[in-house]
Design brief:
This is Transporter. With 447 residues, the chain is of the alpha+beta class. Helix content is 60%, strand content 18%.
């Protein structure tokens, strides 16, 4: 059965926004899209996703050849000298000779290259980098969903505030009408002035309630604009539209926890922890790399660069470097044990989150059912309270009811309207939670 009632459907935004603070008629879809483009959380999630690719590039760079060049230029004011003792093989006499090692100027340049051939830690890091990108993608989706939920709930708070303002305005108008009727009866000598005074007090009280309701609505609108990331000074207005509730469609939607972004985030975190454990285990593996270098040296008494008299020489070397871990005091084993504890903790959190999501889904379903029953009851109560008020007004005009009965009837009608407004808000909040439990919050954007 579809129930139709008057509602402010949702907040949104007309693009583009400029410095002129004109009042805009907004929809929920536009509001959410604006939030996804402008709210801090959404922007940071996008930046994290972009940064994930840079992290992948950083890890991948470790698997590529590493090339570096060095150069130096040295001037030696005092050249080191050593003494060489030589013995004459004929006479057996020794002579000492002072020899200078090197030249005052020396230039050196070197090109080095290295390449990882086998490094288990590097290979594991590449896998982890790809999983990290997937994690940030899922985390962005979760951030978007949380933002959609926050904007939708903030909207419905504004919706309730608007209904409260409309209710007080309606009651004020009705009481002012009765005030004018009583004024006529007093002027005709058919009513007491105390009745007029009591009605005037009621009118003044309603005017104060109306101002309080408008202040509350302004506060809720500011909360909504903050949730959207919108300039607080921007003037907005929410359209009034009729929407239909289809509880049967809501009830038939299946619960699929595997589709919940919260679960996917935790599962990806567990996967990253497993890779982190493998990276620690990689310390048990040997590593093999290739290295090579090519160098050039120049010696001269004067500045050696562009000096044709300089003595020049080149050198080069290539090799394989093998590193085999033998014993590190049990450090790697301790690290692996720590990773195991973190994995167990992540699995416990995953199971607890599943239970919490199932509970939230069932609670939302129950709240929707109860809200629908309450809405039906409150709608009937509003109709009945209006009939009682109309009859009481007519009886008062004919002297068959007292002013107290009339004021009580007005208050009862106002209470019935406020109860209906509250039940509408409770339903919409529960509806958002039920849609969330199906992993379908983005449908609020695409409606």
């Amino acid at each position: 059965m579809k129930l139709k009632f008057l509602s402010v459907i949702a907040v949104g935004l007309l693009f583009p926004w400029g410095p002129v603070h004109a009042q805009e008629m907004l929809t929920l879809q536009q509001a959410v899209k604006f939030a996804l483009d402008n709210k801090k959380e959404a922007k940071n999630a996008k930046l994290d996703l972009n940064n994930a690719q840079f992290k992948i590039d950083e890890v991948r760079a470790g698997a590529l050849p590493q090339i570096s060049g060095t150069g130096s230029l040295t001037y030696n004011p005092l050249i080191q000298q050593n003494v060489i003792v030589m013995e004459d093989p004929v006479t057996g006499q020794s002579t000492s000779t002072v020899i200078q090692f090197g030249q005052p100027w020396q230039a050196n340049s070197n090109l080095q290259v290295s390449q990882q051939i086998f490094n288990q830690a590097l290979f594991t890091g590449l896998k982890a980098a790809n999983s990290t990108r997937e994690f940030y993608q899922i985390n962005k989706e979760l951030t978007d969903e949380q933002l959609i939920e926050k904007v939708a709930n903030a909207y419905y708070q504004v919706f309730q505030s608007q209904l409260q303002v409309a209710t007080v305005e309606s009651n004020l108008g009705n009481t002012e009408k009765n005030q004018r009727v009583i004024q006529g009866l007093v002027d005709a000598g058919l009513a007491k002035k105390i009745d007029l005074d009591r009605t005037t007090v009621q009118v003044n009280n309603l005017k104060a309630q109306l101002q309080q309701a408008k202040n509350g609505m302004e506060i809720q609108e500011n909360a909504l604009k903050f949730a959207m990331g919108m300039d607080i000074t921007t003037q907005i207005d929410l359209p009034e539209e009729t929407f239909a509730i289809d509880p049967e469609a809501l009830e038939t939607l299946p619960i699929d926890l595997s589709n919940r972004t919260e679960i996917r985030v935790l599962e990806k975190q567990a996967e990253l922890l497993e890779l982190d454990k493998k990276a620690a285990i990689a310390d048990y593996y040997p590593s093999l790399s290739f290295s090579g270098n090519l160098g050039y040296m120049s010696f001269a008494e004067r500045f050696p660069i562009f000096n044709g008299n300089a003595t020049k020489t080149t050198y080069s070397a290539v090799g394989l470097n093998l590193s085999i871990p033998i014993f590190n005091g049990g450090k790697t084993k301790a690290q692996v044990n720590q990773k195991n504890v973190e994995i167990l903790r992540a699995k416990t959190e995953l199971e607890d989150t599943k239970l919490a999501l199932i509970m939230a889904s069932e609670n939302a379903r129950t709240q929707v059912k109860n809200s629908l029953l309450t809405i039906n009851s409150n709608q009937a109560n509003v109709t009945l309270a209006k009939e009682v008020l109309d009859n009481t007004e007519n009886n008062y005009k004919n002297g068959l009811a007292t002013l107290t009965e009339l004021l009580d009837a007005e208050n009862a009608y106002a209470d019935a309207q406020n109860n209906l407004n509250t039940s509408l808000l409770d339903y919409k909040v529960a509806e958002v939670q039920l849609i969330k439990s199906k992993g379908n919050l983005k449908s609020l954007v695409n409606e």
